[in-house]
């Protein structure tokens, strides 16, 4: 994953670089410096898992709302 792909993947899951850096416990400047080279190999799977978790949370909230109406 290059820096452009990283930025697009963050945008797709609704995160800024600042939010990403806080979630993973990294210095924001370190994340910004990825523009100078490749993004670490663990990042694509992290973003993928974040997207899945976000989708699961939405689904769980929907189920809870349905249960509470009944």
Can you walk through the features of this model?
The chain is an all-alpha fold. Helices cover 73% and strands 0% of the residues. It has four helices and no strands. It has helices spanning 3-13, 17-24, 28-32, 43-69. Helix 1 runs parallel beside helix 4 (43-69). The chain is elongated and about 55 Å long.
Please identify the structural class as seen in this structure.
Answer: mainly alpha
Give unreliable regions as ranges.
none
Number of helices: 4
Tell how many strands the DSSP assignment holds. Answer: 0
The fraction of residues in strands falls at under 5%
Give the overall silhouette.
elongated
Layout of secondary structure:
Blueprint: H1 3-13, H2 17-24, H3 28-32, H4 43-69
Structure at a glance:
With 70 residues, the protein is mostly helical. 73% of the residues lie in helices and 0% in strands.
Which terms would index this structure?
70 residues; mainly alpha; 4 helices
């Amino acid at each position: 994953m290059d820096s452009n792909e990283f930025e697009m993947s963050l945008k797709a899951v609704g995160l800024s670089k600042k939010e990403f850096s806080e979630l993973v416990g990294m210095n924001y400047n370190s994340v910004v410096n990825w523009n100078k080279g490749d993004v670490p190999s663990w990042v694509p799977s992290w973003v993928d898992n974040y997207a899945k978790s976000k989708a699961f949370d939405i689904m769980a909230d929907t189920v809870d709302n349905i249960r509470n109406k009944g």
